[in-house]
Amino acid sequence: MSAAASTPLDPPVSSEAAPAKEKLPATWHLASGAASGAASVLILQPLDLIKTRVQQEPSKPVASTSRIAATAGEGGTAVLQSEAVQATRAQIARADIWSTTKAVVRADGVRGLWRGTVPTLYRNVPGVSLYFLSLSRLRDFVGKSSFFRPKRAATTSPGGKIKLTPIGDLLVGSTARTAVGFVLTPFTLLKTLSESTLSIPSSASATRPSTFTALRTLYSAGGLRSLWRGAVPTALRDAPGAGLFIVFYERGRRILGVSGDKGKGAVGGGLAGASASLASTLLTTPFDVLKTRRQLFPQQYTSLWSSIALVYRRSGLRGFWEGGGLRVVRKAGSAGIGWAVYEAVVVGLGEKRMKNRREMALARSGGG
After folding, report:
1. Residue 51: how many other CB atoms lie within 10 Å
2. What pLDDT tens digit does each residue of the chain (368 aa) get?
3. Which of 22, 144, 197, 213 is 20 to 30 A from residue 172's alpha carbon, by CA?
4. What CA–CA distance (Å, rounded) separates 166 from 116?
């Protein structure tokens, strides 16, 4: 979901107005998050790969070798490279979307458009699950403060969620996304490297390293710190992006009257999620560009401020929105898929299951 996605979140929790109401077990949040994260990755990975290629700067071919080289960047950070494939792909970067897509297919076949799927799954499946669960628990916690609760509104939003002010939504969304994103930064780094032209052999190569082999190589060359390269621009992208997303999503959800009990959760949640991602994604694309450059070229993009200056000097203001259109489409699709699955599973099936259990319990107690 970029989850974030890349992308991509606000699960329902019990109402403060009804403290006796049983909470939905954490396993429901985790399972629905995993399902929505996996679905969005498998469907939308080609858009993410092309976006990374468009944001990438041209790389200079170097002498061929039959081995995968671990090339240390500044601070000893490794970048896995296949020099034999590097020469044939160097011209892909900084091209338009269509020519980039054709170049990828020419080099790796259609299967190459899904390159980087495995590290993306490692990042998104647990990431979206933890994100959903964190939002549920944070909303419950933050909602206890009257400062974050609307003074002249219902205590819950449609579907039984605790209703927060825009500031509360912003705080909950940004905190959950930033924390989960930071923990999973090594997989984000490996995902970016895998999608770029600098990383690993083509899909047909028998010597392509596994995800954890690649992580061990990066760690051996640059230490633990190297696995969190690009964490600062990633946090600057995720914190406001996720916070704004939650604000827009909650407003859209209320406008659409989304309620799992009425069976409209999946459709309404998908529409609200896709719409909310448009504005939040556009506003945070510059930090996504900085994150990509920092992770791919640590020798040149040595810090946040030097990266900003270098992008501006080479491409002007337009450079900060490279790949923005692809990112908007992918994030909107990811949010729509993710929230449709989540609303269907948690708000629909989960809440209905708990309601049936409560009714059965009442019937048994009444019959005794």
Report:
1. 29
2. 444 444 444 444 443 444 444 566 777 777 777 888 888 899 999 999 999 999 986 444 433 333 333 433 444 344 444 433 343 444 444 457 888 999 999 998 999 999 989 999 999 888 888 888 898 889 889 988 888 888 765 555 544 567 888 888 889 989 999 999 999 999 999 999 889 887 544 444 445 667 788 888 888 888 898 899 999 999 999 888 888 887 888 788 778 776 654 445 567 777 777 778 887 888 899 999 999 999 999 989 999 999 999 999 998 999 999 999 999 898 888 877 877 777 777 666 656 666 665 555 555 555 44
3. 22
4. 36
**Per DSSP, what are the bridge partners of residue 82?**
68
CATH architecture of the domain formed by 3-56+96-197+228-358: Alpha/alpha barrel (1.50)
Please, are residues 192 and 296 in contact by the beta-carbon 8 Å criterion? yes
Structure tokens at 259: 């309620």
With CA atoms as reference, report the closest residue to 314 among 337, 287, 293, 296.
293
The DSSP bridge pattern shows strands 156-157 and 78-82 to be unpaired
Other beta carbons less than 10 A from residue 9's beta carbon: 32
The structure tokens listed for 269 are 């949640």
Q: Are 288 and 294 in contact (CB under 8 A)?
A: no
Domain boundaries, the chain: 3-56+96-197+228-358
